[in-house]
Amino acid sequence: MSVMEIQPAVIETEVFRALADPTRRAVLERLGNGEQTVTELRSGFAVSQPAISQHLAALRRAGLVSERRAGRHVYYRADPAGIAPLIGWIERYQSFWRERMDRLKDVLQEMDE
Amino acid sequence: MSVMEIQPAVIETEVFRALADPTRRAVLERLGNGEQTVTELRSGFAVSQPAISQHLAALRRAGLVSERRAGRHVYYRADPAGIAPLIGWIERYQSFWRERMDRLKDVLQEMDE
DNA sequence: CCGACATATAAGTACATGCTTATGGATTGG
DNA sequence: CCAATCCATAAGCATGTACTTATATGTCGG
C-alpha cells in the first residue's frame, strides 16, 4: 500500500490547520525530542496550561500526537504517522510539484550519507 | 544549497495556513493542470468571484501561486517552489519523522518506475 | 468612446480560533 | 485521608477568517 492511505480530505485539513499555528508547531517540535507531560511542556511557552492542553487536543485530533496516561500525569509524544496526510497531499500533487519532489529526494539521499 | 533555503517561520505559517482551507487547496489543484483566469477558476466553485480572488491573494502571499497579466485577464498558475517551506519543515523534523520520510522515499522511488 | 467584461478591494457579517480565568475530576504524597 | 498536583473542560472575550454584496479600476470590442 502506498504511503497515502485512504484519507478523507477532512483529515488533511485537520493536519494543515494544526500545523498552521506556530505555537502548535513548537509544541510538536518539543515532543519530537521525547514524550513530555503537559506541565513539562508548559515551561518555555508564554501561555497558560489550558492553552497547552487545547493545543495538544488540536494536535491529537489531527493525529499528530498520541498520549500515554500514567496516574495523574499524561505523557504526550509526536506520532510519526501523523504527517502521512501531508505526504499524501504532496504525492497527489506530484504532477506539478515533481521538480520540487526531485529536490526533496536529493535531500533524503544526502541524509542517508 | 539544500531544498530548505533560509525561510522565516512566518512563511511556513503562511503556507500551512493557505493550505488549511479546502477550497484553497482545490483552487491550487485546478491551477496544477495549467494556468487559469479568475473567471475560469470561478466555474466549479460555489463561491463568488471576490471569494476566489481572496483565496488567490492568500495563495499568492504564501508563494504558492504566481500570476501573469494579459490585458484585462489575469492568469494564475501554481508555483512549484511554493511548497519549499513545507518540505523544509518536514526536513527540519526529520529526526523524528525519519521513519515516515523513508516511506516517502519509497513512494518517490516508485514514481520513478 | 463607451458599455460590457475582468478583477480587485471595501465593508459588513457569521462563525472559528486562540487565549484567558475559573472550575471540576482524578490521583498522589505525606 | 486530604490537601496539593495534574490535567481537561467550560465560559467568555478579542481577533481572525471566509464569505457575501457593493463598488472601484482597468481593458477590450464594436
Description:
- The structure is a homodimer of 113-residue chains.
- Chain A has 113 residues and is an alpha+beta fold.
- Chain A has a single domain (9-111), classed as Arc Repressor Mutant, subunit A (Orthogonal Bundle).
- Helix content of chain A is 59%, strand content 12%.
- The first copy, chain A, is built from 6 helices and 3 strands.
- The first copy, chain A, has helices at residues 9-19, 22-32, 38-42, 49-61, 84-92, 94-111; strands spanning 36-37, 65-70, 73-78.
- A 3-stranded antiparallel β-sheet of chain A has the order 1-3-2.
- In chain A, helix 2 (22-32) packs across helix 4 (49-61).
- The two termini of chain A are 27 Å apart.
- The model of chain A has no long low-confidence stretch (mean pLDDT 85).
- Chain A binds chain B through residues 2-4, 9, 12-13, 16-17, 19-22, 25, 28-29, 32-33, 78, 80-81, 83-84, 86-87, 89-91, 93-101, 103-108, 110-111, and chain B through 2-4, 9, 12-13, 16-17, 19-22, 25, 28-29, 32-33, 78, 80-81, 83-84, 86-87, 89-91, 93-101, 103-108, 110-111.
- The first copy, chain A, binds a DNA duplex (30 and 30 nucleotides) through residues 21, 23, 37-39, 47-55, 57-58, 71-74.
